[in-house]
């Protein structure tokens, strides 16, 4: 039988991975009075956080982190000591052949396993392929055969393991961490209940308990659903280009139907979720994932559609100057992960389509891949110098640009904000 499980309200929490999900989770838990240790492999990130600052763009997060660090409730480190709760929020990318890469999760588990004691809780927040939570149990079992691991509905376990996938939108993370419903899937019922005790301390939304495999697939399905619907909008955009129809007007009119809600097309799909998670489903069941795979192909093909439009425009000019507006994968953030805008600008740079001016108000410097081939400028300079204006991200600053300034330019608006 397991020992008495410590109350989550008095638990010490270690959060592995201090990125776009892990840092807000750590800060919110610290704001609720938990003693939180944030663990990251980057000494730079650890130093920034311990200075009460943040390394990402997220509204209000720095204020919460600063307060938590100042109060002594949050401390960042390269390696955590013992804790009662271990939360894993590390990246889960895919490989070059679109297979899930859970190596970061495994490394976190290998770091956690020696520190586990009876009554501890391990929660996986990272979006993961089906079966990963069970793998965590097995990896821990290999390192700690002295601990009884949870098995199905059996309650006799020394530790509890659960999956609570993150459900936050960059730009609104702090609000959504608290307000959104959460799904918690446990290896056993008691595992899910133990994790729910933790999340009930800060989540105002409803908490839904299930098994780990269902929770894993639920998160993947949420993002695959969005991907499929975005692919429909992007396919419409390509059809409208061929038929000389304004896709934005078309979608606006179609959405007047009470049961139609077509999403907005764009230059592709990016980020750590929608562009990645459907591949986890496809990898698990390739023969059955026909619609999901087709949607991925459409969305992955959109950057080339945009690039060809720029090539065609550049061919009309002797020495084209192309101003690329936006690099992040969505508006008003600095996140470049899987960004179609980055893919597009990097390709234009490689092909030397023209002189590249890059406007990205959420970055202080260009990423290394563009540092030598592009120049980071503000909106005023870009509008003054460019022949071709390529709108890739609908940042709020771009929406305020005077439309009269666009009239003498060749404008390629992939977000429809200047229509």
Number of strands: 13
Low-confidence stretches: 1-6
- The CATH superfamily name of the largest domain is NAD(P)-binding Rossmann-like Domain
CATH 2nd-level architecture of the largest domain: 3-Layer(aba) Sandwich
Domain module count: 2
Strand fraction: 5-15%
Number of helices: 15
The SSE string, one letter per element, is EHEHHEEHEHEHEHEHHHHEHEEHEHHE
Form type: globular
Strand order of the largest sheet: 3-2-1-4-5-6-7-8
What can be said about the biggest beta sheet? 8 strands, mixed
CATH topology value of the largest domain: Rossmann fold
CATH class of the largest domain: Alpha Beta
**Structure classification:** alpha/beta
Radius of gyration: 23 Å
Gap from first CA to last CA: 66 Å
Share of helix, binned? 40-55%
Taking all residues together, what is the mean pLDDT?
95
What this model shows, in words?
With 419 residues, this protein is of the alpha/beta class. The chain contains 15 helices and 13 strands. The strands form two sheets. An eight-stranded mixed sheet has the order 3-2-1-4-5-6-7-8, with helices on both faces. It has a five-stranded parallel sheet with strand order 11-10-9-12-13, sandwiched between helices. The chain is globular and about 70 Å long.
